[in-house]
Amino acid sequence: MNFHLSTTDDMTKHDDPAAPVVAAEPSVWYVSPGLTKREHFAAMMLQGLLACSAVTGARDDLANESVRYADALIAALNAIPTPATGEAA
Asked: Residue 51's CB: how many other CB atoms inside 10 A?
């Protein structure tokens, strides 16, 4: 899996790690990316949908809708100007 841990790029990418773990042991560095931001956002969306008793639907439909919400959130985050530059990410 390719991902970056740079803080110089303000763009939110769907495959960025949501909570990466970078650990150093004597002479060994390793990175555990965990869930991607897209996976994390989709899981949060699905959790919210399932918590609402008024929401009904097939599992596949709810899962697909959650991914669409996650993609929309990432797109919206990239459209909002960053404080440092005043430009969209």
From this structure: 8
